[in-house]
Every structure is written in structure tokens, then in C-alpha cells.
Design a protein that fits this description.
- The strands form 2 sheets. Strands 1, 2, 4, 7, 8, 11 and 12 form a 7-stranded mixed sheet that branches. Strands 3-10-5-6-9 form a 5-stranded antiparallel sheet.
- Strand 11 and strand 12 form a beta hairpin.
- The chain is built from 2 helices and 12 strands.
- It has a single domain, classed as Jelly Rolls (Sandwich).
- It is globular.
- About 7% of the residues have low confidence.
- By secondary structure, it is mostly beta strands.
Length: 219
Amino acid sequence: MTSLTTKRRIAHEKITLKTSAQNLVKEPTTQILLTSTNSIAVYADSSPAPISDPDNRVGWLHKKLATGTDKFNYYYYSEANNPLTLGNLKALSAHVSIDKWDNYSSIPFFVVYTKMTGVGDAGSWYHSKIAYAMDNSGDQDICLGEHIEIWAKTKPFLNSELRQVELKTPIVTGDALDSEEIYTISLQSDSGSLINTQILVSSLGFETDKVDHRVKLIT
């Protein structure tokens, strides 16, 4: 017969194990070298192309060099053997540093695009899209140069050891039904940001019930 002391010890061990699992730091599942051919598919139509950081921080640096619509778009999901739907997607995350603050256009945002169906497509190459952006309530702090984790939908399960900032505002274009299959996922800067906007991105991630995918951006 199990004693009360033993039961308490087992219960304590279960709590400790659960807490420890939640505090694990997630290692990247893959990495992309900026100078590799694979990187071109990630930064794709970004202008200007990302560069290495002059202060030797890990990640890809975007600096807006001229007035206009220059921005970065980092695409980090492509379908493999099974399609991912909007309903499957649980969390989005990225590790970033905001080096210059002008206004809320200084903050990057996530965009999830779904596959065209040929009926009611909202764009020329996608059916629906959902952007996740920071609201302008001022209830979250941005410190210049601080390495933070921005996230959307649900908070990432595993601990990044970075301060977390939620992008609370979804902006929906099209139907955006849970059953829609995802075409790609991206982190983007705002084309309306001011000259000399500077953003470092070191990691991109998404989570489903089965997958926790992290992409480390290296130079």
C-alpha cells in the first residue's frame, strides 16, 4: 500500500517534470545561411536584401536605406508531405531586435497566406491572408536593441529565455476558414516604415499540435 509520503513525493516529481519541460529552451530545427542559395527563397522579394550585423549579432539585418516602400518579407513555410491548415496552426514566433523606433510601423508582423482555390480568391496568388500585428494601445514596451520574442495566436510552449511581446491584432483578408490549406507563412516589415528603420531577425517559428518548427537565420 502506497504511503501518503510516497504519494506526495510522486505528485511533486510530476509537477517538477512538467515545469521543467515547459522551461526547456527550444533548439532550432534548421538554419539558413544568408549567403546560401536557400536564403534567396526566404528573403525573396525583400528590398534591400538583408545583410550581416555590423555589431556581430546573430541574425539577418534589415535597414531601410531610402524613403519609399522598401521592406523585408521572410517566408519560412513550404508544404511537405501533409498540408497544414489554418486550424492546425497554433502559434507564430520570431526573435527580433528593433534598433530604431519611429511609430508602430517600426514593428514587424506575421502574415499567413492560404492556397488559391479559383473561387473567391482574395489575392492574385493566395485565397486568404491573416496578418498579426502589434496594437497601438501602448501597453507593451519596446526597448531599442533588445532581443525579444514576438508571438501571435498562442504563446509559444517552450521557453526562449527572451522577453515576450504579443502581436495581438489579427487583420483578415478573405474567408480565412480553418479548413484552408496554408501556402506560406512570413514575417514582414511595414512598407510604411520611415527611412533608417532597422530590424534584426535571428529566428522564425511556428507550432502545430504535432510540430514545433524553428528556423535560425545565420550569416
